[in-house]
Each structure stands twice: as C-alpha cells, then as structure tokens.
Design goal:
single chain; alpha+beta; 5-stranded antiparallel beta sheet; two-stranded antiparallel sheet; 9 helices; 39% helix; globular
C-alpha cells in the first residue's frame, strides 16, 4: 500500500487528530502524501500518511535513535525522514506517535542540551555549588528515563513514580562526560528494591537482557525480588551495561 497523494480530507483529519493528541501539534507543511508535524517540547519532525480512511497508516521519523528503537522499518516505503513504518490501524498510529514523542524527549542529545541550558549560569567553584549542578543533572536524567521507559519499571510493572529510581549503569562519578551521565541508554528505571540490588552489584543483565544474580544475594532477597522478565535492550545500552557487569556486578 502507498500513501494517498494528496491525502483526502478524512485521512488528513485522522492524521491531524492523532498528531495533536500525541504532542505533535505544530504544522510543518505537506511533502507529497505526507503531513509533516513538529512538537514544541520534543526535537525533530514526524511525517504522517495513510492509504485510505481505513488505513493502513504510515509514520516517518527523522531521528536515527528513535528509528532504531521502533524496530523494523518498511524498507519499500519512500518518503521523508530516515525511516518509515507501516501501522495497521488508527490505534497503532496513536500508540506509535506517543512513543516517538517519548523517545524524542528522552534520547540524546535532548537531555544534555536541557541540562546545559539549565546550568549555564550556575556557579561551580565550591563543592556545594557542584552538588547543586549534579542534582540538576540527576533530575534531568530521571525525567528522561521516565519518558524512555514509559513511566514503568520494566521488571515489575510498577508505575508509582515515588517508588521508581533512576539507576545509572555506569555511575555518575565514573562517567567521563556529561553526555555519558545524561544518556538515557546509561540508565534503567527500577522500583526501589531492584534499584538497590542493581546499585549494590547483586543483580545485572546479560547482553540479551536476561537477569544475572550474584552469589552474594541471599535466598530471602531473591524471593523478595521475584522473577524478572528479559529487558528490551538496544545496542546503545550495551557499553554501559558491560561496564556494570565488569565493574559493579559481584560475580564471586
């Protein structure tokens, strides 16, 4: 299937409705059969199209990191952006647009740019002043992880934000740059008990996202943690998670 060119009124209305509800509220023209939209709060641009009033629907993104997170693109579909995706119905279109907004906000280098803007005028001469800057960075990092993981611990499904912690794979103090410190791929959004176990090196994850348990973890603690599903990881997670396995995880 190919996009309507130009999109008919019913298709265009559905595209505009989906874009507006999911954060892409700024019109940015039309490219062939594609309606282009931007967001006031997320970087980048999306392209939207449809094959007809009943779909399928098409989504184009111009952020390589977002494209990599979305999975397999429709290689035969031409249009704007670096990748394009086919979606079977309007519900899938809404879900994908919302996810693209979350990823665009969360992925580098948006958190880094925000941190630099918010701390540009802050002094850093004393230890107390540097701690203020660090806390600001940790707040930005947490918010980016909340967006990246959809506000949910991927191991427990907990969505109570008071119980969710932003866990660095490579700790803040060991990162060489602010880009590393604020990279959402350097973090997991974990419920409090899992966060404590991860920071203490009592659990980690292999390259496929399967749970690794340290022999130092007691039976009582294992029972309290419970079973964990396999994490959904992308290649950008791997260097940080490897650092955690090599430097933090207590293997013996």
């Amino acid at each position: 299937m190919t996009p309507e060119d130009p999109p008919g009124p019913i298709v265009r209305n559905e595209l505009q409705h989906a874009a507006h509800r999911n954060g892409w509220r700024i019109e940015d023209g039309v490219d062939g059969g594609w309606v282009l939209r931007r967001s006031s709060s997320a970087p980048g641009r999306v392209g939207l199209a449809g094959a007809g009033p009943q779909g399928p629907w098409f989504l184009a993104v111009d952020h390589p990191g977002v494209a990599a997170e979305l999975g397999e693109a429709a290689a035969e579909l031409s249009g704007p952006g670096v990748a394009r995706f086919a979606l079977p119905d309007a519900r899938a279109l809404h879900a994908a647009l919302g996810r693209v907004w979350e990823l665009a906000v969360a992925l580098p280098d948006h958190p880094l740019r925000r941190f630099e803007a918010e701390t540009a005028e802050l002094p850093r001469g004393t230890e107390a002043e540097r701690l203020v800057v660090q806390r600001k960075g940790q707040d930005v990092f947490r918010e980016s992880l909340l967006a990246y993981w959809g506000g949910r611990c991927p191991l427990t499904g907990i969505t109570d934000t008071a119980l969710l912690k932003a866990s660095h794979m490579k700790p803040w103090a060991d990162c060489a740059t602010d880009a590393e410190r604020l990279d959402p791929h350097n973090g997991l959004l974990l419920s409090a008990l899992w966060d404590a176990a991860f920071d203490a090196g009592l659990v980690s994850f292999d390259e496929a996202g399967a749970l690794l348990l340290s022999p130092h973890l007691t039976t009582t603690a294992r029972d309290a943690l419970g079973a964990a599903p396999q994490l959904a990881l992308v290649p950008a997670h791997q260097p940080y998670l490897r650092w955690h396995r090599d430097r933090v995880f207590r293997r013996t």
